[in-house]
Amino acid sequence: MTRRLAAFLALLPVVFPSAGLAQGPSEPGPPDATWARLNGRVVDSAGRPAAGIPVQLQCTWLDGQWGRLEGTTDENGKFTIGTPAGQCRLALNVRGIIANDAPGVRLFEFAPGETLETVRTLDQSLTPRPLDGRLLDDRDEPIGGVRVILRSSAIFAGTRQWRTRAPVQSDATGAFRFSAVWAGTWEVVVPALGLSRLVEVPRDAPALASSAPLVIRGARLPAFRVSGRVETPPGTARRYASVYLDRDDTPSTNPLTIAETAADDTGAFAFPAVPAGSYRIRVDTSATAPPGPGRGPFEIIFGITRVVVTGDVSGVVVTAQPGPELRAEVRLDDQPVAPGQRVLLDVDAAGGRFVPLIYAEDGYLITHGLVPERYRIRFTGVPTGYRIKSVTVGGRDVTEEGFDLADGPIDNMIITLTKRLTEVKGVVRDARDRPDGEAAVLAFPTNRRLWTETGQGPAFIAMAHVSQKGNYSVKGLPAGEYFVVATLSDSLLTTDVETLTRLAPSATRVRLADAETATLNLRTVH
């Protein structure tokens, strides 16, 4: 079946996360008779055509190349995208890379020359909208120039945590705006008032429209000056270091930072207006955003001093130490890495703290760039075709439990990668025995200790989309025993403890050895 091209399509190169990073993107060349086609229509929750919606296909083609094709729905909500044969993930209203395990994505298998039809309903919960508010004192006068912090309630490292967004300030009328929030629970924190408010954004709230402004009333708390000095042993001033003021009742792995500053050229710092309360003053030069693979700092400094503020506080000394050293040897299938070969590793913080990817050069990883806390080693896909087989420290296996740099430096770690990949595959069917392309398959360990403190990229938990033919494949899990279950794939599907606890009784158990392939045909669990 042939239809008029409904959208202008552009081919953009892309790098898939966690796989294929060593191979550059390629273009598929001009269309020919072997190309497949996806004809689609996008509607809103009321069944009305959704025009102007970005549509993306992220594909792995039969020749092993990959790339991304993008288009936009027309006035009737329709789109048509041609692609070489292979597997493609379809996402709506998404810019940039589609993660392999992103919820709400649909998987299509295209044979040469095949045309497929689909109708997708736009998920309003992922569409950003503004959040407006206003600060008033107890006489209904506006409070301007005050810092307002927004935190989202999200599943992170296997548990629900508050994640802080960039703060804003109220203007002279007391008004503030966060330009982009989406469905879920949010907390608006106003440290100067000692107040916070929970805000629920419903899943079906209209996009690009703000609800009635949130009004927060309260009196300004007394504020005091807190000042001090940053030092490194033995009492040397540390110039220009970043200094953060964290609320002491929040976790050190995920703090609520109410102010930040920097030390001057003598190591001195000051916070001019701190409400009364208990705080941690933190010096931390670790990266907070991706600097690019292998480009994180080789050495950081880190230190914390607690302070209770009931009046002006001066003379605070924060002693910042270099990050504890981590030295590791990397082996491929128990053989040394070839000279000049680079292995890209993720030293994944168990609590979810961002850590840049680190290159092991010539088979050795050496860094002082990590905060003293607990980590696991995770492989990133460079070089391709490997997975983590084992991680040992002094001969003790820490692959599952991880290791804690708060206990001191480590200089005897061995990281072994293997090409002996595991795979769980099969067909998923719905209650009427039809292939269920609306499902996703979750594989997670029967050892419940591995459900929490999973870091940003859980090594022992995987999610795979099911194609329109019902096929799925989960590759590269470490050897061990797992629950495997098929469930509805949507934007709310997460791998937190509550979800895994709910799905475990309906799951099938499977034990995987190195290089083993297990076939499991599943029924979708709702």
Short synopsis of the structure:
By secondary structure, this protein is mainly beta. The protein contains 1 helix and 43 strands.
What's the structural blueprint in terms of helices and strands?
Elements: E1 10-12, E2 36-43, E3 54-61, E4 66-72, E5 78-83, E6 86-92, E7 106-110, E8 115-121, E9 129-136, E10 147-156, E11 159-164, E12 168-169, E13 175-181, E14 184-190, E15 195-201, E16 214-217, E17 223-232, E18 236-237, E19 242-247, E20 257-262, E21 268-275, E22 277-284, E23 301-309, E24 313-319, E25 321-322, E26 326-332, E27 335-336, E28 342-349, E29 358-361, E30 364-367, E31 374-382, E32 387-393, E33 396-397, E34 403-404, E35 410-418, E36 423-429, E37 439-445, E38 462-465, E39 471-475, E40 480-488, H1 497-503, E41 508-512, E42 517-519, E43 522-525
